[in-house]
Amino acid sequence: MGTAWSRPLRLAVGAVTCFLVLAVLVATGTTQALDVEVVSHLRPRDAWGPAQVEWSPWMSRLQPGRMYLLLAATSAAAAAWRRSWWPLVFGAVLAGSSAALTVLAKVALDRPDPHGWVATSGGSYPSGHVVALLVCLSGCLLLVGPRVRWWLWAPVVVAATLLSVSLLVSAAHWPSDVLGGALLAVAVVGGLSSLSLRQRAVVPAPRNASSRGATTSAS
């Protein structure tokens, strides 16, 4: 079991390291020139054109509220199917930790978005949209069973691509914000999936536990 969980744990450590390095680069303004160049290319003169009309709806379709609701529904369904509270606990820890870390990072950097605006919940880095989407969709897959086939990750990659393009074309986030959100999500998912909590969430409760208890009591 230790060997099986070593890969996601290593992935989480690597993602955390890259996220912190990128955060320092963002805070010192090292990424700003490249960020501005990319956003200016995707949305010239901050104009709203056909590309923005085509891509921007994906921001609302894949908004964090819907993603966290999907994770909650999947956790509840898994809990009912397996007759265990652990899927709900795993889903709640995923959602809570990802949201808390995102807000902490946003408040710490307090970075303005491409339009110069800083929300009351914190700055633009990292993208909360990207964090929520990757954490929630990955969490849904991790609740399906002990092993997730590689091809099941394809819809997650497609959804993340659609959302990332929409955020950049609409100039809702800097490219480094999107990359930071992806790194933070990988760190959270990799770290939590390496814990015994996830294993408990995917193992069904013994079906005959209650009957054994009743038999013991009667005897």
* Largest sheet descriptor: none
Supply the helix-strand structural class.
Answer: mainly alpha
Overall pLDDT score: 91
**General shape:** globular
Q: End-to-end distance, in Å?
A: 38 Å
Number of contiguous helices: 11
Overall tally of structural domains: 1
Poorly predicted sequence stretches spanning 5 or more consecutive residues: 1-5, 209-219
Key words describing this protein structure:
219 residues; disordered C terminus; mainly alpha; disordered N terminus
Q: What's a concise summary of this model?
A:
It is built from 11 helices and no strands. The chain is mainly alpha-helical and 219 residues long.
Can you describe this structure?
This protein is mainly alpha-helical and 219 residues long. The protein has one domain. It contains eleven helices and no strands. α6 runs antiparallel to α7 and α6 crosses α10.
Helix-strand blueprint:
Blueprint: H1 2-27, H2 32-42, H3 50-55, H4 57-61, H5 64-82, H6 86-109, H7 128-142, H8 154-169, H9 175-193, H10 196-202, H11 209-218
Helix pairs in contact: 1-9, 5-6, 5-7, 6-7, 6-9, 6-10, 7-8, 7-9
